[in-house]
Amino acid sequence: MALWRKLLIGSLGGAAAIAALAAGLDYADRAYPPPVDVAGIVSKEVLDRDGRLLRAFATPEGHWRLKTTAADVDPQFLRMLVAYEDRRFAAHSGVDPVALLRAAGQFLTNGRIVSGASTLSMQVARLIEPRENRSLLAKLRQMARAIQIERRLSKAEILDLYLTLAPYGGNLEGVRAASLAWFGKEPKRLSVAEAALLVALPQLPEKRRPDRHRAAAEAARARVLDRMAVSEVIGEGEAERAGGEAVPDRRRQLPAFAAHLSELALRKEPKATEHRTTLDRTVQDGLETVAREAAERLGPKVSIAMVMADARTGEILGEVGSADYFDGSRAGWIDMTRIRRSPGSALKPFIYGLAFEEGLVAQETIVEDRPSDFSGYRPRNFDMTYQGDVSVRKALQMSLNVPAVRLLEAVGPTRMMVRFRRAEVRPVLPPGETPGLAIGLGGLGITLRDLTQLYAALANRGMPVQLGDGITGEAAVINGDPLLDPVAVWQVSDVLSAVTPPAGSRRLGIAYKTGTSYGYRDAWSVGYDGRHVLGVWVGRADNGAVPGLTGYGAAAPILFEAFSRSGLAITPLPRAPSGAVRIAQSELPASLRRFSTTANGLVATVAREPAPQIVYPPEGAHVELGATTGADIAPLVLKLQGGRAPFRWLANGKVLPDAARRRTTQWMPEGAGFSTLTVIDAAGRAASVRVFIE
C-alpha cells in the first residue's frame, strides 16, 4: 500500500471511516484521471485574424463552455480566486489538512457547516465526475480523486480545468463564458467588482445568478470583497469602491458574428475546436450593423450581402451573407454572397477599361448616346432619355447604356469574358447563349464574391487577385497577365472616383460603380480605395422584384456607410503611372476626338500599329551632354518605333511644347541628374525610359 494511502487512513481512524475511505481509494491504483479531452467537451470557437472571438457554438448538451487558461484571465482575478477558495493551493497535494481541521472544528463548535474544506483540486474532481449526493462516501471519493488528479496533472493544468469547467448559472460554464455573458467582454481585464462576482458565483451558481437573484449576487460579492480586504489581496478602499458598483441585471448574448462563414468553417473542419479566419472583428461588426439597420429601412423581405477584402492580398476582412441569419422572412440562412444574380451595369468599367487599353477612346472622347440598333439589339438608358453627344468620362459616370454597348461592340464581348478568366472569374450565360452585347448591361449571372474579385484588380493596379474563402487564408495575386494595363486602370479609377456620392453620404476618396438588374431585382454597388475593395448586393433572396430598388438609391448609400464604419482608414488611390494623363478634348488628336462608327453600326476599321517604344535613349542610359562640365548643354535626340502619330512627349511629367508626327525629336534638359521621358501615341498607349544626364 502506498505511503500516502497508509498515512491518510491512519489519520482518519475508525473502522467505518477506514472502510469507507478504502472503498474510495480503490480508485487510487488506477490511472486517474484519464487524459481530459478538453477539445471534446468545450464549445467550438470561430476567431478573427487576431484571435478575437467571432462566434461560439454551444456543446451538444447545450452548454456554453469556452476553453480557458490562466493566460486568458486577469491576474487579479486569479489572486482573488486562490485566496478565497484555496489559499494553500500551491502547497497541498489535493487535500488541505489544515482546511479540514478548521472545517471540522467549526462544525463541532457551531453544530453546522460554517466553511467548507474543498480545494480547487477537489472541485475539479467534482466537475469531472459529478457526485449524485453529498454523502461522506462521496466526499471521500472526491478527496481521493483530488489526490489522483494532483499526481497526474500540474497545478497549472488543474487551474485551467477549473477556469474552463466552473459553473456560473444556467448553461454557462467557465470564466470566459461567464465574463462574456455577464459583462460583455473577455476576462483578460476585469474590474475588482467583476472579478469578485466571478469568484463568488460558482459556489451557488443558480441561487446567485445576477439576472434572477440580484440581492444574493450582491451579498456574495460583498463577502468576497470583505475577505479580500482582510487578506490584503485588495485595499479597503478598493473593496468599498467595488461594492458600490451595480451587478449586471441581464445576461448578454455571446459574440455571434459571421454566421454563414462560421458554419462553413465548421463544415470544413468539424473536429477542430478553434477555427481561425481572415476576418477582422471590427470590420465584421461594422458591416453587420450597417446591413441590419439598412434592411430595416428598406422593408420586409429585403436582404443585404457584403464582401470586403484586402485588394493586395485577397484576404476577406468582412463578409455578410444576409442582413439577419435568423430572419426567416428575409431567408436569412441563405448566403447571398455566393448566389449568381444579374449585375446590371456593374460590369461597365471593364468595357471602358478595354476601350482605354486599346486606344479607342480617351476620357474626353465624344461618344453618341442616341437610340441605336445593333443588329436587332436596341439598348435603352435606364431613365429612357438620351444625352446626345457626351464625353466618355460623362458616359461612364452617368452609366449610360448606349455608349457602353457601342464600346463593347468595338472591344468584343468574347474578349471581355476572356479578360474575366484572367481574374479566375467565370460568369454564367443563359443556357445555349454565347457572349453578346447584352452582357454589358447585366445579361449574365455573377456572384457578389466574383464581382468583388474583379474590382479588386482595379484596386490592385490591374493585377488580378484571388479572394480567399475567409477561413484558410488561401488568397494571392494570380500569376499571369493583368486584367487591364495600369494606364487603363488609372483612367477608369480616375473617372469613377469623381462620381457624386449618393444623397446624404460624404465624399470618401473612393472609386465606385453601381448596377441595377432588370425588373428591380438586384441592386449593386462596388467601391475601392488604394487598398480595400467592398461589394454590396441588395435584393430579395427569392429573386422577387422590389419596386424602385436601384444600385444608386439602395446599394451605394450602404457602400459609403459600410466603408465609414468598417474601422479602416481610407487609403488614397494610386498615383497615375507613367503615360497616364487626362487630356482636354481640344488637345486630343483628331482620331480620338470622336468615337465613330459606320452607318450600319459596325466600328470603323482602324489600323493596328504596335505600341510605341523608345529606342533612344535606352532605359538606364547615362548620357553626357555637358551638364556637369560647364559646357553648353546640347539637346538630347529622342527616337521611337511603333505607335500611331501624332506623338506627345513628356519630360519629368511636363508636356513638351508640340505634338510631333515624326518619330525623331529633340529635348533640352534643364540640368544634370535622372530624368523620366514618356511618349504617348494617338491611341493613348505610352512608353517610358529613365536616363541620367551628365
UniProtKB/TrEMBL annotation:
The residue ranges of the Penicillin-binding protein transpeptidase domain are 305-539
The residues covered by the Glycosyl transferase family domain are: 54-228
Q: Which Gene3D superfamilies does the record cross-reference, listed alphabetically?
A: Biosynthetic peptidoglycan transglycosylase-like, DD-peptidase/beta-lactamase superfamily
Q: Which Pfam family, any one of them, does this sequence belong to?
A: Transgly
Q: In which pathway does it act?
A: Cell wall biogenesis; peptidoglycan biosynthesis
Reading the lineage from the top rank, the first entry is Bacteria
Does Transferase appear among the keywords?
yes
Q: Which InterPro entries match?
A: Beta-lactam/transpept-like (IPR012338), Glyco_trans_51 (IPR001264), Glycosyltr_51/Transpeptidase (IPR050396), Lysozyme-like_dom_sf (IPR023346), PBP_1c (IPR011815), PBP_C (IPR009647), PBP_transglycosylase (IPR036950), PCN-bd_Tpept (IPR001460)
Catalysis performed (reactions): [GlcNAc-(1->4)-Mur2Ac(oyl-L-Ala-gamma-D-Glu-L-Lys-D-Ala-D-Ala)](n)-di-trans,octa-cis-undecaprenyl diphosphate + beta-D-GlcNAc-(1->4)-Mur2Ac(oyl-L-Ala-gamma-D-Glu-L-Lys-D-Ala-D-Ala)-di-trans,octa-cis-undecaprenyl diphosphate = [GlcNAc-(1->4)-Mur2Ac(oyl-L-Ala-gamma-D-Glu-L-Lys-D-Ala-D-Ala)](n+1)-di-trans,octa-cis-undecaprenyl diphosphate + di-trans,octa-cis-undecaprenyl diphosphate + H(+)
Write the record's keywords in alphabetical order, separated by commas. Carboxypeptidase, Glycosyltransferase, Hydrolase, Multifunctional enzyme, Protease, Signal, Transferase
The UniProt record lists the Penicillin-binding C-terminal domain at: 606-691
Q: Does the keyword Hydrolase apply?
A: yes
In short, the EC number is 2.4.99.28
Q: What residue range is the signal peptide?
A: 1-22
Q: Which family does it belong to?
A: In the N-terminal section; belongs to the glycosyltransferase 51 family.
The protein depicted here goes by the name peptidoglycan glycosyltransferase
Species assigned in the record = Shinella oryzae
